[in-house]
Design a protein that fits this description.
53% helix, Fic-like fold, 0% strand, mainly alpha, globular
Length: 202
């Protein structure tokens, strides 16, 4: 049995204060936490794709926070709030608002003229996903949040949702998660997005 707060490789561990934000008193094991989060996220996906969004509505800090709150708000008290502590992944907390706003403004500029994107829609969304993960705005759930946000962006740009490696959960130690982390690191270290693009559509 996996301990409740034991994280897989590449995930951000929760500190003691964040752990105290667990709302569900019936959860004692990691598998139970994963299941509770998966149920919350499934409901968030239904909410997210039942609404029509414009780019201007999607590309706002308030919407990024609301997506995270919808994904984790039944499980974590801090859902939808920016992290206030340093982590091994992500920028310093005091820079989160500025860097997230810069990202959202950049994507607004990239998509302002629908006939002249700097990259194909898939790449715009994958680059957005990568920068959002790099910022790491929330205490936990950043990869899952960034994937849903990228899905919403690519759909708003007229493309199908990404499949992100097919069936399975990227929160668990699987071959798909390993490929995802390799692709993210290539984007980090070499600004190479081919692997992440291929993974997003695999």
């Amino acid at each position: 049995m996996t301990r409740l707060f034991e994280e897989p490789e590449g995930a951000t561990p929760l500190d003691h204060d964040d752990q105290q934000g667990l709302l569900r008193t019936d959860i004692a094991l990691r598998d139970e936490l994963n299941l509770a989060e998966a149920e919350n996220i499934a409901a968030a996906h239904l909410w997210a794709f039942s609404r029509r969004r414009t780019l201007s509505r999607l590309l706002r800090q308030a919407e990024m926070k609301e997506i995270h709150r919808r994904m984790f708000g039944e499980v974590w008290k801090w859902a939808g709030t920016f992290r206030a502590r340093e982590t091994s992944i992500g920028i310093a907390p005091y820079r989160i608002c500025t860097e997230l706003e810069n990202l959202l403004l950049d994507v607004q500029a990239q998509t302002a003229d629908g006939s002249r994107f700097p990259w194909p829609a898939d790449e715009i969304a994958v680059r957005f996903h990568h920068r959002l993960v790099s910022i790491h705005p929330f205490p936990n759930g950043n990869g899952r949040h960034a994937r849903l946000a990228a899905d919403l962006l690519v759909v708003t740009l007229g493309r199908p949702r990404f499949s992100w490696g097919g069936a399975g959960h990227l929160t668990e130690v699987t071959e798909a998660r390993s490929r995802y982390l390799v692709a993210l690191r290539a984007a980090d270290q070499k600004a190479a997005y081919d692997g992440l693009l291929a993974f997003a559509r695999s």
